[in-house]
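Fig. S4 source data, part A: sequence.
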Amino acid sequence: MKPGWQPREPDPELEAEMLRRLMVRLGVDEARAKSMVAADQRTDRAKLARSADGAGAVVLEEAFDRAWRRVGLALDRVGFTVEDRDRTQGLYFVRYVDPDVTKKDGFFSKLFSWGSSSDKDKEAQRYRVLVKAGNGSTSLVSILSNEGQADVSPVAEKILGLLNEQLK
C-alpha cells in the first residue's frame, strides 16, 4: 500500500486530535489547545424532521447564506448532478440515480439495444432541493418533485438521509 491520503468516513474524534496536534505544533500551549478543541465540540448541526403534511426535511442550525453553500457542497460530495440552481428561490435542480432500483431490462434486451441512451440516463430522476430560511438562525432543506410539489416518496427520504449525513 502506497503512502498518501486514504478516503474514509468522517471521524470527529480523530479530526479533533489532529487539530489539537497541529495547534501544538504551531506554538499553542498543549493545555490551551485541549481546552480550545473541547470547547469547539458541538452537537450535530443538522437533524431530520417531518412537516405536518408528512414530507421530510433537514433542519440546519445555520442562516440561509451558510446553509445554501453547505447544501451545494453536500450535493457535490454525495454525487448528485446539479443541473441548475436558483439562489433567489433557494432551489437546486438535481438528477439522482437510485442505486437500489433494479433494472427491468434483461440480458438480451441490453445486448440488442443499439443506439439507445445509456442506463444512467434511463434511471435518472429529476428533483428540486429547496433551501429556505427558517426562524432566526435556522434553515430548512426539503425535497420537491420535478414539478415543484413536496415529495414524500422513499427516494426523497433517502436523499434527505444522504444530505443529513453530509450536513451533520
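Fig. S4 source data, part B ends here. Helices lie at 12-25, 30-40, 64-78, 107-111, 119-123, 154-167.
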